[in-house]
Structure formats: structure tokens, C-alpha cells
Amino acid sequence: MSKEEESLIEEVDNTSGESLDEKNVNEETSVPLSQYEKIKDDYLRLAAEFDNFKKRTEKEKESISAASVAYFVNSLFPLIDNFDMAMNQEEVSEELETFNNLLTSVLEGLQVEEIGTIGENFDPSMHEAVEHSGEGETQVVETILRKGYLFQGKLIRPAMVKVKSE
Known about the structure:
The chain starts with a helix and ends with a strand. It contains 3 helices and 6 strands; from the N terminus they run αααββββββ. By secondary structure, the protein is of the alpha+beta class.
């Protein structure tokens, strides 16, 4: 045999040996179909749980920030009430008007809305009635004693009102 023939035989032997090794590796790494399905199912469940966790923590962050703003606004209510009383005086200074406008713009920026207007129907979920007059079926707000406020559509303080029945 020539050297070329010997090298060809060796190459064939080497490649056949490699394919045997590959078969052994494939047999060792192959997983039964039922076990593969279980692993796949576990992976999908874990991915879904992680996605739910991310959504839940995002909602918690939003609710914590909303609660913080609502708490801050609650602490401002005495200041807001005093500004309202001062603005209802006969003579109001220009500085006081400026501060009141600034306070109003801050509340609007925080998405805080005033509720309670004279003449609207009485709503016990939005109003706190302290006095009632008249006889009738329709209850209407007669006087606003203290303004109420909503924060992002949720009640943070009911309006204190006098109610008149018509």
C-alpha cells in the first residue's frame, strides 16, 4: 500500500470513529419527550410568573406614589381651608391672591380636583351633610361649608355641605 492509500484509510477510520462519538454524545444528551415537555412547561410557567411579578411590582409602585401624593395633599388641607376663608374676605391683598393662585395651580398639577357646588344633587358618597332643611324628595346642596377634593378620580375628602330638600 502506498502512503496515499494508508492516509485515506486512516481518514475513513477517524471519521467513522467521530460519528460513533457523536452518536454516543447524542444518546447521552437526548431527553425523553415527556421529560422535555415537563421542562418546557416549567419554563413557560416560570416565565409567566416572572411577568406577573413585574406587573404586580409596577402597580405597587404606582399605588405607593399615589398614596404619597394623597397623604401630602391631606396635610395641605388646613392651609387650603385658610386660603379659602381669606379669599372670602371683603378686601383681599394682591399677594394673597397670588399665593392662592399658586396653590390652586399646584393642586391642578397634582391632579387634585375640587368637588361640591351649590345647586347640585346631594351625593352621600361625595358630600358630608351637616345640616338638613326642607321637606321633599329631591336633596340639593344649599351651602358649601368646606370644599371636598378628588385625587385621580378618588375621593380624598368629602365636601361638607348644608342640604335642602325640595
